[in-house]
Amino acid sequence: MSMNHTIIDTPTHRLLRGTRPLLVSLPHVGRHIPEALRPLYTERALAVEDTDWHLDRLYAFAQGLGASLLIPVHSRYVIDLNRPPENTPMYAGANNTELCPTRFFTGEALYREGCVPTPAQVDERRTTYWQPYHDALNSELGRLKAEHGHAVLFDGHSIKSELPWLFEGKLPDLNLGTAEGASCAGSLRTALSAVLQGQSAFTQVVDGRFKGGHITRCYGQPGQGVHAVQLEMCWSTYMAEAAPYEIDPARAERLAPVLRALLGVALAWRPDR
User: Is pTM beyond 0.90 here?
Assistant: First the structure.
């Protein structure tokens, strides 16, 4: 790890504070379900299959570039850090998972019968798990903006390439989301898009099915000097899409230059003057 990083460990997340105006957030890499909650879930749910597997490993290089990283402890099955606190659907007219998800990405129930969290229990989880992550996110972006005049938030995600309950057909390999250009400056969107269009190893799209979740939409305020983008990648770009969900070193090695190029652009970019 870069000697320039300050590590802040809390019960809900780890923040690696860097020295440059880029924060990489990985809100769905957490896998922990607290002991007190485990009896509520189906046996299948305890394997946390809808995790964004191995992204902390894939993005570890960002530390060496001087970027900050924010990594949660708990599984998205406990609470989804990339959903609005008031639990409004992210994508109108489509199947969505909630702030406290009740279904797998395949549509089946996560909880045992009668064990779905009540509104009061959702509120408690929001306070205990969701709020600290967002407090850290907001604080770190504020620090970076104060030091550098702007901040770039890169929200990293991954997902199985085919999930009929959530979307039709097969996803493109790399899905860049900028809330249709609202979450970052146009020049940053163009520069990141050029990286995707300039390589031929993976299929790609900008602002397709995944335009950016709550984190991208909420924190991406280009008029205020904070520019946010989301990258949703298919698992197939770097790992096996079936249990035990192991990373494929050859595939990961093929993906690595693209991720490095994207973060390199995010770091080199400066706001429109």
Answer: yes
